[in-house]
Amino acid sequence: MNDTKMALSLYESCKKIVIDTGEIVESSKSSNFKVIRKSARELVTEIDLRAQNHISEALKSICECPIFFEEDKTDGQTKLPDDCFIVDPIDATHNLVAGLPFYNVSIGYIKNSEIVFGIVYFPYSKEIYHAFKGKGAFKGSEKIMVSNNS
Predict the structure, then answer these.
(1) Cα–Cα distance between 50 and 137 in angstroms, integer?
(2) How many other CB atoms are there within 10 angstroms of residue 104's CB atom?
(3) Is the distance from CB of 139 to CB of 128 less than 8 angstroms?
(4) Residues of the chain with pLDDT > 90: what percent?
(5) What is the 3-state secondary structure (H, E, C) of the chain?
(6) Count of C-beta atoms within a 10 Å radius of residue 114
(7) Tens digit of each residue's pLDDT (9 = 90 or more) over 25-84
(8) Rounded distance, CA 84 to CA 56, Å?
(9) What are phi and psi of 92, to 5 degrees?
(10) According to the model, what pLDDT value does residue 8 have?
(11) Please, is 72 exposed, middle or buried when counting C-beta atoms within 10 Å of its C-beta (0-12, 13-18, 19+)?
(12) Is 29 or 87 the better-scoring residue by pLDDT?
């Protein structure tokens, strides 16, 4: 399988992974969950860790690339490998904790030091935004573009 076909296959698999992870987030948020303070301004919850674990297991089952999680980030001191996934199991955890619907699950894939695709899924509204290098950006199956407004 060539690199493009392999990347397209990963792309489709990752779309399913973010949706499945979103379902885990949505079903978990009604339970009592612990909130852990990473720093003065950053929170992580048990739901983040559950989502991270699900994504990690799912990605490892389809690809042997390293995975970098937002929850494990450093001060920019770590150089990413040429091929890897970049994942935020729940972006905007503060909103989740506050009961606001504006949070998402995201996965990006880098190959040969270039971004190949990115996927962002909003579990509350079930909206998925995704883009693949050279193929465009989409909201669900509808192609989206930058506005012509200046």
Answers:
(1) 28
(2) 24
(3) yes
(4) 67
(5) CCHHHHHHHHHHHHHHHHHHHHHHHHHHCCCCCCEEECCCCCEEEHHHHHHHHHHHHHHHHHCCCCEEEHHHCCCCCCCCCCCEEEEEEEECHHHHHHCCCCCEEEEEEEECCEEEEEEEEECCCCEEEEEECCCEEEECCEEECCCCCC
(6) 10
(7) 999 988 888 888 766 677 888 999 999 999 999 999 999 999 988 766 555 556 778 899
(8) 12
(9) 75, 45
(10) 94
(11) exposed
(12) 87
Amino acid identity for residue 75 in this structure: D
Q: Which two tokens stand for residue 141?
A: 């199956």
Q: Per the structure block, which two tokens stand in for 84?
A: 């890897």
The two three-digit tokens of residue 7, written as one number: 């990347």
Give the tokens for residue 134: 């050279």
Spatial strand order of the sheet with 127-132 comes to: 67-69, 84-91, 104-111, 114-122, 127-132, 136-139, 142-144
User: What's the token pair of residue 105?
Assistant: 């699950």
Q: How far, in Å, CA of 99 to CA of 96, rounded?
A: 5
